[in-house]
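ugh ok fine here u go
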Amino acid sequence: MMQVCVRHVPVGHRFLLIRSNEEFTMIEIKRETPSGTKYVVLKHGETKYGSLHHSCHVVLFEKTLAVA
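structure:
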């Protein structure tokens, strides 16, 4: 496993947010927002989408999940 930032996580990949030790899945990368790029994620065990700052440090998991 290697340490990267949120901006390097491909859509559909699961990752661990280092600062909180929580699992997320990258759902979408929106580049056309007024404030710049938005990284839409889904926290493991939740149903509501959220977003993370592009420079948050994460660890990628080996397996990926299919995103509809």
